[in-house]
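hey can u run this one w/ zinc ion bound, need the structure tokens asap thx
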Amino acid sequence: MKYLLKNADVVNPAGESGRLDILVDEGRVAHMAAQIACADAQEIDLEGTNLMPGLIDMHSHLREPGYEYKETIATGTRAAAAGGFTAVAAMPNTYPVCDSEAVVAQILEKARAEGVVKVYPIAAITKGQKGEELAEMGLLRAAGAVAFSDDGQPVEDPRMMRLGLQYAKNFDALLISHCEDKRLVGNGVMNEGIMSAKLGLAGISRAGEEAMVSRELILAETLHTRVHIAHVSTRLSVELIRQAKKRGVRVSAETCPHYFAATEELVEGYDANTRVNPPLRTEDDRQAILEGLHDGTLDVIATDHAPHHRDEKLVEYSLAASGIAGFETAFGLSYTHCVLGGALGLEELVQRMSVAPARVLGVEGGVLAAGKPADITVADCRQEYTVDVASFYSKGRNNPFDGWRLTGKIRMTMVDGKIVYRDGAVVI
Ligand SMILES: [Zn+2]
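ok here u go:
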């Protein structure tokens, strides 16, 4: 299928931007120019919209294999397409854990057969994510793993993390750290502070995250290796990463929409959908996250899409599973709170959601140019709408932003030149 995408305002930080027509042929961008005529292409008028290189989510949980009652590769990638993502990286805390070539191959095969967007498996740092023995990183990488993480769990033993970083350095592989010192987190279920005291819920000390961020920065600095910090949520974490970058440490970092769109105040009312790890923090932290995105300390916005079955959330707060099903609200929350909020321009938002994740993961994408894959996201950044979790493609309806008014709606998602989502519906 040959498409001629006309009249969109192209936001393409790593290439040509502005009012451009784009000709898509055989899965690739064939031509970009102010005016293109092509008789045998299907013309799509995108007047009034913004067209971007496909959004890439470097932190998601697709739950397959093993937890298909929460999400599958089929449903998860449809939710991703609805959220404007053309590619997602899947964390390895599945069952079995993605710590073998067989599981990597299984995920890639499923994604090819049943997925509608690109799926990049992330493999475990340690076997079974148990923190005791390194996984076979070289083999896993050769099988198609794009990065390594024990996400869901920290690598508690600093010696093990050091070994992992050292080993990964041999082939410049990326380790993604879920920063959480369990001993400081204890049995906490929300941010520790006045709000947790008021609600009578056990608090999670911010030091649990920050101490681990410090550890990873020191390890990366002394070993001269890369490290990526997942889901940054506090002011001090941002500041530690900022200072490390100034010293030349090879660190990259991400935050998630819920950390700049919401605070612990949202927990009032005990909605279990607000339970997430790390927890929603304070207004001061929220401001620091926006500052970190603004000055580039935080390279990436990732969703940490973590779907759960409703029964895992329909319990009292302290028993509820942690996580937010975030694919389908990520762009709207980011546009509304970062761009309309003034922290980022649209071009910088595309940087955080497409260009930077492609660069950090070392995968294709993040740029539109002749010859590149036609992975394209189109959004109407003037359109206001109300979040309705009942309309989600994800099996997970655990999202605390249900009923929120947002601006910035995904209109179309194209993967390798195929339209997979258009005007409210997955079309594949
Ligand atoms: Zn995590």
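The longest strand covers residues 376-386. anyway lmk if its weird
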